[in-house]
Amino acid sequence: MADNLKQKVFNIIKQRNLCSYMNNTKWEELRNSMYNDMPFPPPYDIKYIDIDHSTGDNINKDIYYYGDWYETFLLYGYVSIEWIKIKPVILKHRGCLIPPEVIDETEELINVLEKYNIPYTKENNIFTVYGYRKS
After folding, report:
1. Helices 24-36 and 106-115, axial angle in degrees (round to 10)
2. Chain segment 35-62, per-residue pLDDT in tens
3. Model confidence, pTM
């Protein structure tokens, strides 16, 4: 199964003329740092190279939940990740009559990405880490 997925991914990479930006070590550093270096594991959206759509479109909305950085990576592995969009902001519910608290850990995420030399782009406070991209 794993060999079939790898072959499928490599065929797509060649077909779309993509360039690799991350390796397994970088993905591991990113995944581990989301739990060890961040105040909370930020929510994210992920796009796999062999699937035509991402896992969800909630990343542009206000989010009340943490990201599950272990499960997703373990299910599919790193080789098939086209990109991950990370939103280092969550809302913390405080009650029915009080607006939620906005917890913004943008600076911490930038520090993590720079600490591990992980290339990223930033647009509207959403960080994109590319696994593969057109060169």
Report:
1. 140
2. 999 999 999 998 888 887 766 667 777 7
3. 0.87
